[in-house]
Please model this.
Amino acid sequence: MLTRREFTRLAVAGAASQVVSPLLAQGGDRKIGYCIIGLGRISMDHFMPATLASKNSRVTGLVSGHRDKALAQAAKYGVPESSIYTYENMDQIKNNPAIDAVYVALPNSMHAEYTIRSAKAGKHVLCEKPMATSVADAKAMIKACKDANKKLMIAYRCQYEPTNLRAMQLIREGHLGKIQAIESANGFNERAGEWRLDRKLAGGGPLMDVGIYSLNACRYLTGEESPEIKAFSSVIDHDGRFDTVEENVSWTMKFPSGVVASCNTTYGAPMNGFYRVHGSLGFLHVEPAFIYQGLHLTAQFATPGGGKPTILDEPNPSRDPSQFVTEADYFSSCIVEDKNPKTAGEEGLRDLQYMSKIYESCGLPTL
Ligand code: NAD
Model:
């Protein structure tokens, strides 16, 4: 979670992407080398292309179960064949000095094993969300990285993204007055056959995958922790997709200040990710709020001193993979400058603890 000072620094620095490391500057073009673990949609379509635009990050290793796919990606990113590993022999990355860090982009239940093995191999870890599929695994991941003296960041890209930072700024600077309530939703219609529908691999349904964006947003927008939580879940489509995970979750939270939040997530409908924040002086609305491009903030709040209200209409022109460039740049700068990432393992752990409470309130298995 960003403190006010950290937030201001990130906002001023242009969403962290402008952070220039003195060590990098001294070291010429030395870039942090990433070994990509899992060649799927998020790694091949977003993160790896982003490294080509990153000033301090590059791909130097691959872990895949598919040799042909790995060879094709290796050719694209200039990775030597000797730096292609399998899931079985990936521990050998410890002998590869071109690999400083790993990017874990596997199904959720595999995050813990590959984070821990990577830390033991002496590598920093950027791990996709949700951090893990159990609170115990998340704690073990934090411990493994601490024991190895390696950094662990959970890939909460929205916390480094300019439109979300702008929303935080407007709230922190008091433009909306006293925040009273938040609404948020995020979901999509999931296809049959996806690992996301298998509890063993996913840990749960849409809450773990996309509801987590609304949950995390309520936390970074309010800057508050430890909400009281009540929730419902349901399955409407008995078509085989929801035999092991939920289809819908709706939850409400009450934060210590009294801010109430109401969120929905689904795997049964195209649900454009958004949030709307209501304060005593006005509101802000970001929609879409969580996807890779096209984010759009609107707001209306009382102008200090009276007169016409201030109206904001701020479409974000950035194109994918800019959010991943920022994310890679930021984690690499943390490594070079020996800084603890804003979204370290503890941030992912807190979301898991809250999601466990949501499931508990629904009468579903906890995490
Ligand atoms: P994907 O299915 O496209 O890719 C998963 C990769 O894991 C594939 O390379 C697959 O071969 C490999 N894999 C290894 N063992 C597997 C197994 N037993 N079953 C299935 N795949 C296996 O998934 P994805 O959409 O790239 O998601 C990967 C991770 O990234 C997930 O944790 C997801 O939550 C996260 N993600 C994050 C964002 C974001 O914006 N930050 C977006 C999408 C996904």
